[in-house]
Amino acid sequence: MRVLTWNLWWKFGSWSQRQPAIEAEIRRADADIVTLQEVWADDDDGDQARLLAEELGFHAIRSRRSDGSPQRFGNAILSRRPLRFVEQVTLPDLDGGPTSRTALIVAIDWEPAPRLLVTTHLTWQYHASATRQMQLQAIVDAIERHRRPDDGGEPIPVVITGDLNGAPESQELRRLTGLEPGYHPELIFIDAWAAVGEGTGYTWTRDNPHAADASWPRRRLDYVLVSWPRAKPFCSPVSARLGGTKPVSVDGRPAIVPSDHYAVIVELDDRIEDARPQ
Questions:
Q1: I need a labelling partner for 129 at 20 to 30 A (CA). Which of 49, 55, 152, 249 fits?
Q2: In Å, how far are 2, 74, 196, 224 from 238, measured between CA atoms?
Q3: Minimal CA–CA distance to 6: which of 192, 201, 258?
Q4: Per residue in 110-152, pLDDT tens?
């Protein structure tokens, strides 16, 4: 199963020129699952997630406001196969109060076994590690509510994707990946790029013209992570690469880099050879 995650940079910059380039790059990746952050929706131009899903022939679930309308600045999951909404988690600020940021959790019955899929976009401020840790704690707590099947069988594997706005060496990511005491005593996540990616994997870099004047250093902010323990080799990362790194021209339009972030594209193993969690 191929998973693509990408922060689409909302309606910033030349957004209407970037939209066909985004679609073209997603098509080129040929992913089975596409998870998106900074997805726009408004009365004038519609819902970016719905528009992409219709063009690609995918199913889609996106984050919504309390009245059921699409979040103007939200997350979305697109899939070749049907998705089932599980929960939308409202992420807290440092004081524990609600923010506009969310995590979207869906279930997908993709053969040979089901799995949970999460996408999120954590608080962005450079200094906000403590807030991001609180937000990841809320996400892991929600995952724990849903990953155990009703029949008491082995926990369902979970894939977390998104723009986590923390580098791999940050405390928030170290806790998530088991390098420090984690968010749950029996659940950590394997970083697909660390497992099988080549090179730095920077998704935020001044090499991108949309980030040429960035004050942040180059870093890897966007992730595909898979839960552990699980039956091997199911959901183990096989390959990882970046997407959206080059200017794209569609139908003779001027070439443009699609977003200020690069996409991460990960192939996950779908074999189940050992029923014991590893």
A1: 49
A2: 10, 29, 6, 12
A3: 258
A4: 888 899 999 999 999 999 999 999 999 999 999 999 998 777 7
How far apart are alpha carbons 235 and 225 in whole angstroms?
10
Which of these, 135, 131, 138, 139, lies nearest to 94 by C-alpha position? Answer: 131
Closest CA to 188 of 234, 227, 139: 227
- Residue count of the chain, please give it: 278
Task: Classify domain 2-268 at the CATH topology level.
Answer: Deoxyribonuclease I; Chain A (3.60.10)
Tell me the per-residue pLDDT of 177-192, one tens digit each, with 9 for 90 and over: 999 999 999 999 999 9
Residue ranges of domains in the chain: 2-268
Conformation bin of residue 126: beta by default, left when phi > 0, alpha when psi is -120 to 50: alpha
33-42 and 98-108: which strand pairing?
A: unpaired
CB 110 within 8 A of CB 159: no
Which H or E run contains 140? helix 129-146
Q: From the CB of residue 107, how many other CB atoms can be counted at a distance below 10 Å?
A: 18
CA angle 15, 21, 26 (to 5 degrees): 120
